[in-house]
């Protein structure tokens, strides 16, 4: 019978392995090759947030959401703007505020990357039983929900 400490240790090791796998350059190269796009991982994170977490963000709000400093987001969003993936718009309420919005091109690239990630997940889960997949997803969602404040 396992203890909570043993279970937490096992989970911690599994999560570290998962994150290391997901951050491997070769893994990201496979995702972008499958998606047929050229985009670095940090830029993809910005585009993803703009596509999925709301219509517009200020640079500071986006930096906070990503857990990085505003100058980092500024540099990345300037690159994304040059690529036509995001655009800036001024606030009608406060002329000093600038909002970032994703473009249709950015939405399309985000969709392609998500489809490529799904293919990787399908590859990993295709040998699992329906019951195992369902249990895993249910428990993983429960775990993620329990981490929320």
Textual characterization of the structure:
There is one protein chain. With 149 residues, the chain is mostly helical. It has one domain (4-147): Orthogonal Bundle (Arc Repressor Mutant, subunit A), CATH 1.10.10. Helix content is 70%, strand content 8%. The chain has seven helices and three strands; from the N terminus they run αααβααββαα. The protein has helices spanning 4-23, 25-35, 41-52, 59-66, 70-82, 104-125, 130-147; strands spanning 57-58, 86-90, 98-102. A three-stranded antiparallel beta sheet has the order 1-3-2. Helix 2 (25-35) packs across helix 6, helix 3 packs across helix 5 (70-82) and helix 3 packs across helix 6. The longest helix is centred in the C-terminal third of the chain and has 22 residues, at 104-125.
């Amino acid at each position: 019978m396992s203890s909570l400490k043993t279970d937490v240790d096992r989970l911690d090791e599994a999560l570290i392995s998962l994150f290391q796998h997901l951050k491997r350059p070769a893994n990201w190269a496979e995702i972008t090759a499958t998606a047929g796009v050229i985009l670095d991982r940090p830029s993809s994170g910005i585009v993803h947030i703009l596509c999925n977490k709301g219509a517009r963000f200020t640079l500071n709000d986006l930096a906070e959401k990503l857990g990085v400093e505003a100058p980092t987001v500024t540099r990345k969003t300037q690159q994304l703007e040059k690529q036509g993936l995001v655009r800036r718009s001024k606030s009608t309420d406060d002329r000093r505020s600038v909002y970032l919005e994703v473009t249709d091109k950015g939405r399309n690239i985000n969709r392609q990357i998500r489809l490529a990630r799904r293919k990787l997940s399908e590859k990993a889960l295709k040998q699992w039983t329906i019951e195992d997949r369902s249990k895993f997803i249910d428990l993983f969602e429960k775990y993620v929900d329990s981490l929320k404040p």
